[in-house]
Amino acid sequence: MPFRKEPPHTHGTIAKSAVVLVNLGTPDAPTRKAVRRYLKEFLSDPRVVEIPRAIWNLILKLVILPFRSGKSAQKYAMIWTREGSPLKVYTARQANRLQALLAERGHEDVEVAMAMRYGSPPLPQVLDELKAKGVDRIVVLPAYPQYSGTTTASIWDAVYAHYAQVRNIPELRLVKHYHDHEGYIEALADSVLDYWETHGRGEKLVMSFHGVPKRTLMLGDPYFCECQRTGRLLAARLRLSPEQYLVTFQSRFGRAEWLQPYTAPTVQQLAREGVKRIDVMCPGFTSDCLETLEEINMEVRRDFEMNGGQEYHYIPCLNDNPVWITGLAEIAEQHLIGWPTMMSPSQREARRQDADAAREHAARLGA
């Protein structure tokens, strides 16, 4: 297999560092056509659906795409904003504010880029653009705090597949997870406490994480355990007793057993048991999206109210919360250690002189 053409390179060019913030993805528009295109890419990934390809491809082509695309498009239309998809809008804001904060903290030479695993901007395209800018050191930072083979590992697949076609591969650091990182937990706690200060506090705090099939846990995926640890750490930070919070799992799909307890039935049961107010948050999503704004804030809200619940409060995701941007910066800095991203004026001048000398030497050799 021939390697892809390398961008023009000048000897003595100073190598740059970058952080790529990667989220799952979103359709380009809340239309049937755009949603179908997005779902086809997403659901064709064997990391996402572990069913024999021949069988799944038939189901996807004949059942899922024809019938689910239109319904999903209607749901996306309910949460779409003037700026576009909430997930894409908030991920872009996170990337922009992370770049600004890193610069304030002395990392002026670090570029921060946003990419999507599915949809746009596609991760391979972003990696190519960084290479063209002279970036030769990259931290890949998933927007998923908890590791799962269905999400984080899929990003690694895309990174490896891309660089399998590249001759000059940059130095890579892949952030596996930060489910128990102090900056992440602190940002979650800050968002809850800030909400409670304005809206009061419910009888129960429900922490709803995205679900995955139970068999993934049995096969060694650490996702369930990492969600539980996030829940325990957040509860401890909020000083909640075990009776005051619940960890649940949403977005079940198909007939197979998924991680339990399921969010919707749990919320319904709480209402039937006489719980009048609950607060619901989605710690596993760092940006609000279809699964939080439509499924949790609309569908599950109806489930609670239809079963006798009186007050349902949804606590938004971290989004561009300044405390979360600080947490992101701390996570990024831990993985940038050892790379020359923070320099004094004298170090910057020495680096410039070294680059000039290298270019002069290359010119004498006719390179």
Explain this structure.
With 367 residues, this protein is of the alpha/beta class. It has 2 domains: 16-179 and 321-345, Rossmann fold, CATH 3.40.50; 182-314, Rossmann fold, CATH 3.40.50. It is built from 12 helices and 8 strands. The chain has helices spanning 32-43, 53-79, 86-104, 123-132, 152-163, 182-199, 214-218, 223-238, 263-272, 290-306, 322-336, 345-364, and strands spanning 16-26, 110-119, 135-142, 171-174, 204-210, 245-250, 277-281, 311-314. The strands form 2 sheets. A 4-stranded parallel β-sheet has the order 2-1-3-4, sandwiched between helices. The protein is globular, with a radius of gyration of 23 Å. The relative contact order is 0.15. The mean pLDDT is 93.
Protein topology:
Layout lengths: L15 E11 L5 H12 L9 H27 L6 H19 L5 E10 L3 H10 L2 E8 L9 H12 L7 E4 L7 H18 L4 E7 L3 H5 L4 H16 L6 E6 L12 H10 L4 E5 L8 H17 L4 E4 L7 H15 L8 H20 L3
Parallel strand pairs: 1-2, 1-3, 3-4, 5-6, 5-7, 7-8
Helix pairs in contact: 1-2, 3-11, 6-8, 6-11, 9-10
Short structural summary:
Helix content is 49%, strand content 15%. The strands form 2 sheets. The protein has a 4-stranded parallel beta sheet with strand order 2-1-3-4, with helices on both faces.
Number of domains: 2
Main sheet, how many strands, which sense, barrel?
4 strands, parallel
In the sheet with the most strands, the strands line up as 2-1-3-4
Distance between the termini: 28 Å
One letter per element, helices H and strands E, the order comes to: EHHHEHEHEHEHHEHEHEHH
CATH architecture of the largest domain: 3-Layer(aba) Sandwich
Q: What is the molecular shape?
A: globular
Helix segment tally = 12
Any low-confidence stretches, pLDDT <50, length ≥5? none
